[in-house]
Structures are given as C-alpha cells and as structure tokens.
Amino acid sequence: MKSRIAFSLLTVFMALAGLTPALAAEKQSFQEWLEHYRAWDRLEKEYAHESAVDTPEAVLKRAQVYLNLNSPEKALEIIEMTPAFTGKDEADRLWLGGQAHRGLGDLTKAVLWYTQATKFLSDDQIRARFKEESALESIWHDVWLKMYWSYLANHTLSRDSQKEALDMILSVGRKVWNNDFWNKVNFLMNPQSLPAGPPSANGSGETPAAPLVQPADTQLIARAMASVSLEKFEEAASYISQVSNETVRTFWASALSFLSSGNTPGTLEVLLQGNYLKAHAFWAGNVLAPYSKSRSEWFLGNPDSAAWTKFRNNILTMAPEEAEKAIDNELGSMLISEQTATLLRNFKLALALSGGNEQVSTTTWNSIDKRTLPICLRLAGILSFKESLNNVLPEKPAQAFALYPVLAALSGAAGENVHPETEAPFWTAAPADKLKDLSAGQYPLDRLLLLAYWQQRFEAKPSPELAKRAAYLFDDSSFGIRSLIYLADDAVRAKDLQLGAFYLNRIDEPALPPELRTAWLDIKTRLELEAGHQGQALETYQEMTKTGEPVPVMTRLRMALLYQQRREYETAQKELLAMWDARSTMTTALQAETLFWLGEGEQAMRNPDKALDYYLKLAWQYPQENIWCLTAMYRASLIYEKRGKYETAKRLLGTVVRNASRKEQRVAAQARIDAIDKKMGTEKDEDKSTLVYPF
Fold this sequence. Notes:
mainly alpha, Tetratricopeptide repeat protein, TPR-like_helical_dom_sf, Serine Threonine Protein Phosphatase 5, Tetratricopeptide repeat, TPR_rpt, signal, 67% helix
C-alpha cells in the first residue's frame, strides 16, 4: 500500500514537472546526462566504447571532451592522428585543432589551423564561428603582425610560403572584421593589386621627423661599432663623442655602456623631452634584453680565450699598416685552419673599418662571409656599405628572426632607416598623445611604435589581457618579459598555480637581469608555498636572497613564518628583523604584525624578557591595529601572570576584554582574569601601594 502511494506521489510530481515516467527515461541519454553535469572524464569513456569510434562524429566528440577537461594535448593527439574529413566535419576538426593549439599557448599554430578551417565554411559560417571564439580579433591581429615581422627577417626558400600564409590570414581578417588595420596592411602588402592609394587612417599626414643623424655621424657610429667588436671601448667612445647631435650622442653612449656592462640607461629624460617615441621605446622596452647576460656575440673571437686575447692585444699595439701586414702573413700560412682564417679576415675588416681605411674595408667586406661576423661588425658593415639586412642575417630562421629587430632598430638610430615605406623614421619626434594615431593609423607595421604605444597603455592601466598580448608580440624584449612576470604573479595570486607555472616556465630565468630574476624567484617561491612544496620554496627563497636585490616584504614574512613553523627560530628572527629595518616602507598593520611575530619567536626560544619587549612595544606604539595590539597584550599578560605580577596581567587583560571585537577573545581574557583572582585571594585596594615590608 505504501509503495503504491509513493509511486503515485512520484507520478504526480513528474506530471507537475511536465514529465511522465516514460518520457523521463527517454528525455536524456546517459551521454547527454553526463554532458549536462559536465562529467567530462566519464563522458570520454562512453565515447571511447562506442561501436562507431572512428566516425567523424565520434572523433570530434572525444576531442571536444578533452578540450572541456583542459587537456588540449590529448585533444590534439586525437585530431592529428585522424585522417582529414570532408566538408563541415573537416572544418570542425581543424577548428578544434586550432582551439587545442591555443590551449597549449601556441597562438601562431592556432591561427593557421583556424585559417585552414575557413576553407570549408561559407562567409556567414566564418563570421559566426569567429564571433563565438573569445578574443579572436586581437589574436588574429597579433599573430599576423608577428608572422609579418618574421617574414621581414626571412631570406630562405620558405619566404614565398610565408607570404602565402600571411595573405591567407589577412584575407580572413578582412572578411571577418574589414577595419582600417586590415585594409591598410592589405595595401602595404599588395600595393600592385589595388588601383587606388592607401585607405585613409587616423593620424595620416606628414610625420614630424627630425633629421638628426648626418652622413658623417653614420660613419662615426660605424667606426665606433667596429672598435667595439675589438672591445676597444675608449676608442669607440671617442668616435661617439664627435657625433653632431647631443640626443644621438646620448643614445649611442648608452649603447656602448650596455655592450660593455649589460646595463641599460639610468634615465631616459633626454628622449622624453625630445618626444623621440621610438628611441625611448628601444630602451624602455629594452630591445637588447636577450644580450643582458652575455654580449659575446657582439665581439670578435672568444673573449674567454687567453690565446686569442694575447694575439689580439699584440696586433692592436702595432701601427695600422704593420697590423694589416701581420694579419696577411698569418693568412698566407698553409698551416692555419679555415676557422682561424675566417677569424683573421674578420679581424682585418674590424681594423680597417675602425681606422677609416675605406679601400681595405671595402675589399675585405666583399670577400668574406658576412653571416659569420660578430653583431657589431655586421652593423658597421650595414652602415658603411648600405648592405641589406638579409645579407648579414644568420642562416637559421630562428636566429635571423631574433637578430633582425635589433639590427633594424640600431640601423635606424644611426640614420639608415630600413623600411621607410612602412615604418616611421627612428628619430621621429611627436607628442606622446599621438602614439595611437601613429602606431594604429599611419604606421601599423612599425614594431617600435607599437611597443611604445603598448607600454604607454600598460603603464596607464595594466591588465592581464594587454600583458598576454605584449608577452606574445614582444617576447624578445624586457617589456615582454615583464608582461610574462605580471601574468605569472597575477595567476599565483589568484591561486591558479598551473597557469602561473606555465608563464614562469616561458621565461629564460638564467638570462634575466638581477631585478627581474628576483621577481621571477619571488613568484616561484610563492607558487611552491601555495602548492605545499615547502622544501622547494625554502631553496628558491634562499636563492633569491643571494641575489642581493630587495626581497618583497610579504614574501619575507611568509618565509619567516614558515621558518617558525619548522622551528628554525633564529633564521625566522633574522628575516623578521630585516623586515623591521625596512619598516618605513611598510603599513602600520604590517609593522605591528612584524613585532608580534618577533615576540612569538623569542617566546618560542624561551626568551620571555625579549618577547615581552616586543609585545609591549607593539601594544603601546600601534593601539590602532586592534587585532595585533590586543593579541600582544594577551600574550604579555600570560608572561606577567606566570611571574606573579597579577595586577599588571589583569590590567592588560582588562583592556582586551573592553576592546576585543571577537567574543572568543573577550571570553578567553575574562577567564584569565577570573583565574588570577582565585590566585590572588582577597582583592586588595588598587590605590594602595603593593610594596611589602618584610619586618
């Protein structure tokens, strides 16, 4: 009878919900039910056991499940192992592949896969897909730009294929967004295919560029770079001191300082005052960041080789004609290797260029393999002989892509602008509020202008979205590296440890300058602490303190508490005392907390007198920091109670009872007062002296 009633009630309930028992069973399959509750791991197993596991529908469903499980590598494995489909199924397969590459952090491959998917879709379907995928407009823009900059540095047989890929991505960009950027770059990439001039853009018109670098200045800079290749920095500085314009002199003096020590300029005020946007961006974003740790690629020979150094210094003591003859004698020997012969010819070129010997330098330049030269000599040759960058770039595409923006920028800084049709002159002078018009409107392909504009935006309003774009586009500059550090810090603060580790691992930590390396180690320390890897965190923290750079105060506090937890009290006290020495930079709340933990450490080391000093100083100096003040007073009262100083203990506890915001704290303090009263026996008049006469 009861089961009938229960069944009837269930039937009524399901009817009210619009279901009958039969419909309820048929409404969802098990797979649909799992999908509704996002049980993706179980759903993948269901798909894997289907009889038609190799059909397009089954393959795509399994790949989608792995994407939902945040396992893009497994999704990509399924997609890449599957033969191409046809029609919409192939579009779906390629689109999922693009999403998987995006999930792995490879935006370039993601865009290429998305582009291939569009071949199987109508224009309306393309627009719909692109609208559904988050932030695809900015990704499309950034990937195309980065591929374009790579294309500029490409002098290999793959250049035509790269141009074809650029045109495909550009075509999709115009089809989906059709804005000023895509129309402008379409004209710049394919001017012969368009009958009209370039479309108008914001900020169009004549760029206010100042002709700061005269031809004689360019030759002085070339001679200076040849001297630097021989590590003759004083001679190079003497050439730079003769450059006619003060701002240009300052820029190149900074370049010499960097090549000598790896240090960037301490101030960029002269560039800011002159509104030299690209020159400022060069140093503010530190385009030379990849060479901060070592500049050996810029110099001739091996700087660490004693034999080479001795030979070089010996030649440099000779008169120019005598030095040239000595090198020619060595080159005439049948016993030297081809590697040594190459080094000697490069040495001869450096001497001729630095000494202004035009005839010898021209002859030598035309007879050597320019791709084997140190970077300083490549730059000197570009300036002296108007050589194309592509003729001096390394054979390997990755190395060429890395070196191209450096040579292009420095060539412009020396008066030889590499791409006058598509990029603003290096010494363009314009107010900072014109950056957007210049970078987005007039010169959308100018890397340094875009770097300057994005730095301006990031300083005004930093955000993870902008940091992601900067970290991708400018990964070889300190701005890009700082953006990665910003992203790693943001992820760790949000407790997204996997994402934080992803960003940290994208950074070449040993190559970082000291202040950025400290930031990297700080984030790694906090990540390891959050992950529960205390031993690793301690090792990383100790490595950070060895850098000599200032340690973030909150990290120092967390590590001090970890040391206390591990009962390494003396080490903890050292960290806390270092914090106290820097208290002027801390909030009063943090100052009070530091004193409290110093007191706790002394108490743990059985130094109650020292602990009492910290507790009482805290209670007196920081009464406004209620939590720390009252807790310190409670701790101090326990010490006084143990010593039999009951009145003092009660006075401290009375303040806790009156001012504590938490009931538990008030109750605990009152309980101690009651216990003290029992110890004291008959209450004495507090106004009377507590002095006791023994006789």
